[in-house]
Amino acid sequence: MAITIRNLRFDLAAVPRHWHGGRRGVTSFFDNLSVFFPAGERFFISSVNAHRSQITTPALQAEVRAFAAQEGFHTREHERYNDLLAAQGYPVVTMAARVQRLLGWARRVAPRRWQLGATCALEHFTALLAHMLLSDEAALEGAHPAMAALWRWHAAEENEHKAVAFDVFTQAGGSYPERAGTMALATVIFWAKVFEHQLRMMRADGTLGSPREWAHLGRWLFVSPGPLRRLIRPYLAYYRPGFHPWDFDNHALLERWEASYLHQEAA
């Protein structure tokens, strides 16, 4: 599938604090993920670019350029998103600095191909979560239109380029043990940080001790739409020796989003 570069800007000026239909815990989950993206996207770009000399096909070289452009625009929009959160009183500057330090440590101590393996792993997570946002209208039901549009745009592009880092890893000689090992390590570190961020965001919002908000969040995550429950099987597929990201073929879903996006642009 073609990787299309879309330089979109979203008007976040009127976005309310609890933009996900007033659901505070669920809003915090999305906001929590946004904190990762600026530093994370830069790490992904650098880890892929570090292996460009080992790419053997012009087609993949072109995909890498498009991947970097898409991730660059994601970085810019999530920096603007995070600025909004900071203005609303959330500790995102401190949280983002912690993410930056963690990734800086990874750059210092991990071999470059392990860094690329971690990028493949995290790209798999983002693609799976993004697929859920596009495939289930309930995932963003009641959300502010600007935020729904931002997340769906990001979700579509994460799926468009979901195989780029993986294909570079393969052409750079990445092995199955490296791929499986970096996924196992990335899983532990990433989800530990997600949980930490959720606690920090909900504490800042005054909902950390709210059984009601935790119940709403738990239902959203594990029941309906249930992204984490639905994540398990495709996540485990990553450990299959012959796995490739496009084994999970969602071209039709991306074409549907593209048609909707072009219709809105025309309107």
Describe this structure in words.
The chain has 267 residues and is mainly α. The chain contains ten helices and no strands. The radius of gyration is 18 Å and the shape is globular. The mean pLDDT is 95.
**Count of distinct strands:** 0
Oligomer, anyone? single chain
Q: Report on the biggest sheet.
A: none
Principal-axes shape call = globular
Instruction: Supply Rg.
Output: 18 Å
Q: Supply the CATH architecture.
A: Orthogonal Bundle
The portion of residues forming beta strands comes to: under 5%
Distance between the termini: 25 Å
**Element order, helices and strands?**
HHHHHHHHHH
What structural class is derived from the secondary structure elements?
Answer: mainly alpha
Write the layout of secondary structure elements.
Blueprint: H1 24-49, H2 58-87, H3 92-109, H4 112-135, H5 145-160, H6 164-171, H7 176-205, H8 211-222, H9 227-237, H10 251-266
Helix pairs in contact: 1-2, 1-3, 1-4, 1-7, 1-8, 2-6, 4-5, 4-6, 4-7, 4-9, 5-10
In brief:
With 267 residues, this protein is mostly helical. The chain has helices spanning 24-49, 58-87, 92-109, 112-135, 145-160, 164-171, 176-205, 211-222, 227-237, 251-266.
